[in-house]
Amino acid sequence: MMCFLLFDMAQQEVVKKQLLPMLAEHELTPVAFNPHELPNWPEDARVLLYLSDDQISELLPCATDKQWQFAFLPHPNAVHAIKGGGVSSKLLQAVEDGLNNKARSVDLLLCNGRLVLNSVVIGDVFGLRPGGAIEGLWAKFKHLLSSGRRLGELVPKRYELITGNDEKIVTAAMGITVVEHGKNSVMGRRLLPGSHINDGMFHAILLAPRSLMEMYRFLLSSVFHRNSGSVPRSVGIIKTASLSVRSNGGMEYRHDGCEICAKELVFENQAKRLSLVSGRLLAIEEGASDSKEQRKIQHLPSGGAIEQMTKRPLSWIAHAATDEFKELYQALRENATPSNVFLTLMILSTLLASVGLFANSPPVIIGAMILAPLMGPIISLAMAIARQDESLLKGSLYTLFTGLALALGFAVIATWLIPLQQVTPEISARLRPNLLDLAVAVISGIAGAYAHARAALAKSLAGVAIAVALVPPLAVTGIGIGWGDTGIMWGAFLLFLTNLSGIVLAGAVTFLVLGFAPFSRAKRGLILSALAVVLVSIPLALSFVQVVHKTKLIKQLEGRLIDDIRLAEVRVVSSRPITVSVKLVAPRPLTASDYQNTKRAVEAVMKQPVVLEASSSLRLQ
Could you report the per-residue pLDDT of 48-81, keeping only the tens digit for each? Predict the structure, then answer.
């Protein structure tokens, strides 16, 4: 195999002093590059190119018919050829690779007829810019800050793309990166794991965040979590053999670092047109073949969202266009209708919860939680409050009150039919709600609204229903009504009100954050919801203070020694009067005076009279 060196005359001294001594052991002919006349070398000749990016871009399209084998060397002005060809920046290593590595047929990517050595970048792509990883924590932090300062001023542009299969894609994006393959950059290896330089295809990567929050999330991911294999929500990927890109008012783009303006960009991939000796940083697979066109664009803005995004800089929160949540709104309207299915499930879940409460059976109560359909109208009510939708509000409230009346009525009937009047632990657990129950309701409201907004998460709704437990408190309220016990009735109903107010407020705020309503519209409803939560929080806070106080008392008493008697299994079972249950562990049988002494010691710790319920246990050594 004959070898030749085609070099840049401007680098003649470097070639003479550094490059030629490295090639002294090889029969190699050096020739200065002349763009107007190509040498008459034989086919399959190996040609080492010590040329700039511009010279290589000019040479290769003209020389592909010569069937020469090309190897790039690290010329100081060949940054993009070096990246695209995976060439080592060390001259000696690049020479070794160029002489010894096997030549393979690879694709050529053209943009408006000009060869693309590495990438074409349209607009602002931030972390999608091809290149190496940012090394060092401080460098990453500075890059993040410099990128973040510009975000508030940038406005997404409308782009129209037509792929090789004549698929038309219209969207709004900050920018687009087009690359032949993803093997030569950290960004490419993360987003394009299945790309090859010889598969007949190339890639367009679109950066299209809906909001500043989404953009900052992408920047953090691109800077600090580059090894993740998932495609960020703000990114779309198109794999195709040809592509045209248009934008209103033209486009400014960087073709291998060169700043250019154009009204339209036409990309064409010429499959296996060039015989390339790649560098050690680019692995070329023999078996790579033409593949099908692929698109990962499900999260790109479309429809009315495009017009909204291209009018002004990105807002902090993305605002969904009407056509983007049409299906969600339809589902919520269905949830706000008291259908036969809703009424049936409401009755069955209430009866099941009532039986589980009387039987003190957590599995049965959990089944009632899953069966209960109340979460649907409550989430619909949250959306109605967020968007101030009067018809959805009326429908949600009507369905909610219908379900409430059914639950109370059938719980009362179940109480009359079941000949038991014992307050089981499961009933007792729902009589004293506190701020922790409100926290559960708020978190469940966020989860419920988010799961409704993301159809793929609908399977998580069963877990939300279990967590928030809407029907059991209503069943306990009905039991209290059936027994005529106002303490049980109001304690359990307060828990239901806690769940209801917490879910509605949290759900409305979640829909606001997800962009389903502007704050100006949601403000009035949010204020009323927050006021309801505040009112409910007053008795919850008092109850929580009592829980904290009981916990402190138990901590003070548990394990305490009174003479030779140790206190164990301490519980505060009642507050009025304060009643303490305790097991007394002693090495001897206890007398009546021992119990009296223990009672006085407990009262001294608690600094108030107590009713002591004590049992004893003999401990022999």
Answer: 999 999 999 999 988 888 889 999 999 999 999 9
d(CA 506, CA 391): 21
Tokens of 505: 């407020």
- Cβ–Cβ < 8 Å for 270, 110: yes
Of the candidates 181, 185, 95, the residue with the CA atom closest to the CA atom of residue 131: 185
Position of tokens 């708020």? 442
Residue 483 to residues 405, 415, 419, 473, 488, Cα–Cα distance (Å): 17, 8, 11, 15, 9
List 270's β-bridge partners, or say none: 108
Q: 46 near 69, Cβ under 8 Å?
A: yes
- Hey, what are 367's tokens? 């089944």
- Contact predicate 305/320, CB 8 Å: yes
Contact between 47 and 73 under an 8 Å Cβ cutoff? The reply is no
In the beta sheet, which residues pair with residue 178?
120, 204
Q: Which two tokens stand for residue 192?
A: 């394009």
Angle between helix 326-335 and helix 390-417 axes, rounded to 10 deg: 40
Determine the Cα–Cα distance for residues 441 and 74; give it in Å rounded to an integer. Answer: 62
226 φ/ψ angles, rounded to the nearest 5 degrees = -75, -15
Backbone angles phi, psi at 169, to 5 degrees: -125, 120
Instruction: Please state whether the predicted TM-score (pTM) of the whole model is above 0.90.
Output: no
3 state DSSP class of 493: helix
Q: Could you give the CA distance from residue 307 to residue 321 in angstroms, rounded to a whole number?
A: 9
How far apart, in whole angstroms, are the C-alpha atoms of residue 124 and residue 565? 76
What backbone phi and psi angles, to 5 degrees, belong to 173? -145, 155
User: CA 179 to CA 536: how far, in whole Å?
Assistant: 58
